[in-house]
Design a protein that fits this description.
CATH architecture of the domain at 4-245: Alpha Horseshoe
CATH superfamily of the domain at 4-245: Tetratricopeptide repeat domain
Largest sheet: 6 strands, mixed
Number of helices: 41
Strand order of the largest sheet: 7-6-8-12-15-16
Distance between the termini: 78 Å
Structural class: alpha/beta
CATH topology of the domain at 4-245: Serine Threonine Protein Phosphatase 5, Tetratricopeptide repeat
Helix content: 55-70%
Number of strands: 16
């Protein structure tokens, strides 16, 4: 960063110095930039030796040599030697150019970088602050030089586990670079890379991958693919993929990183050693423990030759070997390694708080598994003190630190869970309720922490992963609430268990609908809303393009657009408190409010939570809350799968399965259900795949037509969560035309069976939509006219959407699930409406009817539920969805749908209309087709209210009312005009 112009102002003696020294310096500098650090150092040392032998005294050339040698030794990770050279450069720069010179500032910058690499962020920041004073004076506060300093402050904040501060520094740097640097400059590849590292540590893995990918793309504009500095960019992407739980995708990035470093720096360089250790972690996650251990030991040996024994990279290597032993069940060996790691950290000049904490948490786990509870609790308190250093743990041994004081929130989740386990073990030993209460309180704090963490995640996948990894926290907290209820009889604990169950349901659906509401209700100017809508629309288009064609070019555009969109949203979160409050408002569940809604309806709210064979059942009526918690001894998933595939078992076995599921799921609350007519069922986990109406208690009947199904005594509707039942999706369908039906035409060449599976002929589909259109005075698109483009054009304008077509449920990639339409030749659409496209629609329908197969089936996502096409339509704005849970029979589906419309036309609520339609079918079915497989696949989710058909002459009434309004306005204006004249 030295001003080149100053070279011309140096004493004449500088130009007269030995040109060999200058040649060697320049050649060494070139090798340095090519990443050949050892060769560069040899030339620089030769130049220095020659220079010192000339005894020309301190000058610019000597300063350059000391500074460049310091930089080179930093690259070689020989830190003390680097500091020695840079200290000499510091003295020379001060003597030659003064205390406020940019030459001195450059040396301060390099010294700060060395100390940062040594994991001494405090010393590093001292030098960066000195540098900042000079850079600000010389270049200005918004210069790229100052931007790079903010970036380094952010790096050190990460080392100190101050992630919020780090994000603030990175944002300052990013804002400066946007104004001062070209978009393809190295400033951007560095800031994207460091922000990616930060997001990985915060658990924002998708964002980390996106930023890491963008950083690598920009890096390769300036460096050859085999340059050593490129290696860490591959490694960063790999570590983010590994942290996301995708080691098989991470491994190629790690291998690339290692290959680059082995070739450019050699197998004994510390960076190569670090890369071996990182790759070892991936092999460990893949279960290849021997390979992992070999690589860990290799990495440790290399790092130990250069770095201090207390350096986090060295200590981390021993920690990772401890993890290997733990993963293989050798807890004593693991404990030995963890204790060695703790000793090293305790003797280190600086120990990263998160590494210190997670080491003590692991020690606590090992003590806990061996029954050494006192020692386990001591270790946990040490972990809490490390993560919340401002909290006096010793003064408050039975309390948890406030969340605002916690440094690393993801690590703190593990600490809270282990602490809860220790306390519960004490409770089991002595039955003292205080331990049970403290155990429950720790888990409650963990749940609150999960709520806070998810606010920082834009990605649905990251939220799903957070909840998947925290599932045990919800399960354990619900279990302990039930225990406290059993011990005290206090039903407050029962409702707390219910509220905890709710927190594990439909989080993403709620959050995104709430975000849309917040934008509209927080006073954001219209022009800004339009700009956000435009960005969101462009983003949706790119996401759909990337889904179909995942190219690097589209991915790059997608990352750029996501950053723009997220920046815009973040701005409003920071500067509009109302928007932030509304966007992140959690569902407010209150038992009395729920019971007030149930009052006078003879309805019960029946909610389930099922995880790790632990089943919790909640029944809320207008006067009471009842709960049941049990460990299920059978595999519910297997039983439910038998009902979805009836051909795999006999009729008698099928009935036994219905009986078994009834006993488990309905039996505990059977007597309380006897006086209820209507049920709102809120499933969880695999229970999303079950139609509760088909469940039947044991009876003497073996005829499917006569079984005492639940539907015979109860109307059943489903809800995504109690929060959605309390605050249903709102539609603005008033005055809209009623019915829009689609029945595409398919050939029978793929599969001509009677089931809506492959793209076979659906002989009854057109009958379905014809009946609906006749009853509700609707519009039809059938045959080749039933195209995707017509649906996209007309769907936002109608109150009832009926799609009698084929569906594809992709359990591995839910966004690829979709509905088939006729493929119109003149259309830009491909005839396949995927879930991502549905999510991006803006619908106002009261009801979406999808009589296609598997529209209620999809991937189970922790914290959310089933990622089905039905959920996509709810997200798009449909108040209720009628969908199929499995492969649908064409005839039975058409019959039930037609009867459903008949009863809806008569004014019955939607759930009652569906019940009557199913009972009609049962009454007419034969012994074979009365099997629930034929009629119970159709389920209704959402609002139960009746469909209110708009008259066929609605347009005339609307126009008449408009004319009357205009006449009244004109009359008032005329009166006002007369008044003005008289006055």
């Amino acid at each position: 960063m030295t001003n080149v112009f100053l070279l011309y102002l140096l004493p004449l003696g500088y130009a007269q110095q030995d040109t060999t020294v200058e040649r060697l310096y320049q050649e060494g500098k070139t090798l340095y930039y090519e990443g050949q650090y050892l060769q560069a150092r040899e030339l620089l040392l030769e130049a220095l030796s020659r220079k010192e032998s000339q005894d020309t005294g301190p000058d610019e050339q000597l300063l350059d040599l000391y500074a460049r040698l310091g930089k080179t030794d930093r690259r070689l990770r020989v830190h003390q030697r680097a500091i020695a050279y840079l200290k000499q450069a510091e003295n020379l720069a001060a003597n030659l150019h003064g205390d406020a010179s940019e030459e001195l500032a450059d040396v301060y910058f390099d010294l700060g970088t060395v100390y940062s690499q040594m994991f001494d962020p405090i010393s590093a920041n001292v030098y960066f602050q000195k540098c900042q004073k000079i850079y600000s004076l010389k270049y200005g506060d918004t210069s790229s030089e100052v931007g790079n300093l903010y970036m380094n402050f952010g790096i050190n904040a990460i080392k100190q586990v101050n992630y919020q501060d780090a994000e603030g520094y990175f944002q300052q740097a990013f804002d400066i670079f946007k104004e001062s640097s070209p978009p393809e400059s190295q400033d951007f590849n560095r800031i994207y890379s460091n922000m990616g590292v930060l997001y990985r540590k915060m658990g924002n893995y998708d964002k980390a991958i996106e930023f890491g990918t963008k950083a690598l793309e920009l890096k390769l504009l300036h460096y050859k693919p085999d340059h050593p500095s490129v290696a860490k960019y591959h490694g960063n992407i790999g570590r983010a993929l590994q942290a996301k739980g995708q080691p098989e995708k991470a491994l190629p990035y790690m291998k690339t990183s290692v290959a680059i470093l082995e070739k450019s720096l050699g197998p004994e360089h510390p960076e190569t050693g670090g890369a071996y250790a990182e790759m070892a972690g991936v092999y460990a996650d893949l279960g290849q423990y021997e390979t992992a251990r070999t690589l860990y030991e290799k990495g440790n040996q290399i790092l130990g030759k250069t770095l201090a024994t207390t350096h986090p990279y060295v200590v981390g290597g021993y920690f990772n070997i401890g993890r290997l032993f733990e993963d293989q069940g050798d807890y004593l060996q693991a404990l030995d390694y963890y204790q060695d790691v703790l000793k090293r950290f305790q003797s280190a000049p600086y120990a990263p708080p998160n590494l210190l904490a997670i080491t003590q948490e692991k020690i606590a786990e090992m003590y806990f598994k061996s029954g050494r509870l006192e020692e386990a609790m001591d270790a946990i308190r040490g972990a809490m003190g490390a993560l919340a250093p401002e909290f006096e743990v010793e003064a408050h041994p039975h309390q948890n630190p406030p969340l605002g004081l916690v440094r690393d929130r993801l690590d703190f989740l593990a600490v809270l869970q282990t602490k809860s386990n220790i306390l519960y073990a004490w409770y089991q030993q002595n039955q003292q309720q205080a331990y049970l209460s403290e155990s429950f309180e720790s888990l409650n704090l963990a749940v609150a922490l999960i709520e806070e963490i998810k606010k920082g995640y834009f990605s649905q996948e990251d939220q799903k992963l957070l909840f998947a990894r925290s599932e045990a926290i919800f399960t354990q907290s619900i279990h302990k609430a039930f225990e406290l209820h059993a011990r005290t009889g206090n039903k407050t604990y029962l409702f707390q268990a219910f509220a905890l169950s709710e927190k594990g349901k439909s989080n993403f659906l709620w959050q995104n609908l709430q975000a849309g509401y917040a934008l509209q209700a927080s006073g954001i100017p219209d022009e800004e809303l339009n700009a956000i809508d435009l960005l969101r629309s462009e983003l949706a288009g790119l996401e759909e393009s990337f889904l179909e064609n995942p190219s690097a070019e589209i991915q790059s555009q997608l990352v750029d657009l996501k950053i723009q969109y997220q920046e815009r949203i973040k701005t409003w979160e920071n500067y509009n408190p109302k928007y932030y409050e509304l966007k992140y408002a959690s569902p407010q569940l209150d038992l009395q409010r729920i019971q007030d809604k149930l009052a006078g309806t003879n309805t019960g709210l029946l909610e389930y939570y099922y995880e790790d064979n632990q089943l919790s059942i909640f029944l809320i009526t207008e006067n009471d809350i009842i709960g049941s918690h049990q460990e299920v001894q059978v595999d519910l998933a297997e039983l439910i799968q038998q009902l979805r595939l009836p051909n795999t078992i006999s009729a008698a076995s099928y009935i036994q399965t219905l009986n078994a599921l009834y006993s488990i799921l309905i039996g505990p609350v059977r007597s309380e259900l006897e006086d209820l007519e209507d049920l709102v069922v809120i499933p969880h986990g695999v229970l999303h795949y079950l139609s509760f109406e088909e469940l039947a208690p044991v009876s003497s009947d073996t005829d499917f037509r006569k079984l005492p199904y639940l539907i015979r005594n109860h109307t059943v509707i489903y809800a995504w969560s109690a929060a959605f039942w309390m605050k249903p999706i709102k539609s603005s369908s008033v005055g809209m035309p009623t019915y829009l039906g689609f029945a595409p035409e398919f050939s029978s060449q793929i599969n001509a069976s009677n089931y809506r599976a492959a793209l076979s002929v659906l002989p009854n589909a057109q009958t379905e939509v014809n009946n609906g259109a006749a009853l509700f005075d609707g519009r039809l698109f059938v045959g080749t006219e039933a195209s995707e483009s017509h649906f996209l054009e007309w769907a936002p304008q109608y109150r009832i959407l009926h799609l009698a077509t084929h569906a594809l449920a992709n359990e591995q990639e839910p966004l690829r699930s979709g509905l088939w339409f006729s493929n119109a030749r003149d259309s830009l659409e491909d005839g396949y409406l995927n879930a991502l496209e549905i999510y991006n629609l803006n619908l106002s329908a009261d009801l979406a009817v999808m009589s296609a197969c598997n529209t209620g089936f999809g991937q189970l996502a922790a914290g959310e539920g089933v990622m089905s096409l039905g959920r996509a339509f709810s997200y798009a704005g449909c108040k209720s969805v009628l969908m199929s849970l499995w492969l649908a029979n064409d005839h039975s589906t058409s019959t039930i749908i037609s009867h459903f419309y008949d009863y809806s036309k008569k004014g019955l609520p939607k759930d009652a209309a569906l019940r009557e339609a199913k009972l009609d079918y049962l009454n007419q079915a034969d012994a074979l087709t009365a099997n629930p497989y034929f009629w119970s696949h159709l389920v209704l989710v959402g609002d139960a209210g009746p469909l209110k058909p708009v008259s066929g002459h609605w347009l005339y009434w609307l126009l008449g009312g408009l004319c009357l309004f205009i006449l009244l306005v004109l009359r008032v204006r005329k009166g006002n005009a007369v008044d003005r004249v008289i006055n």
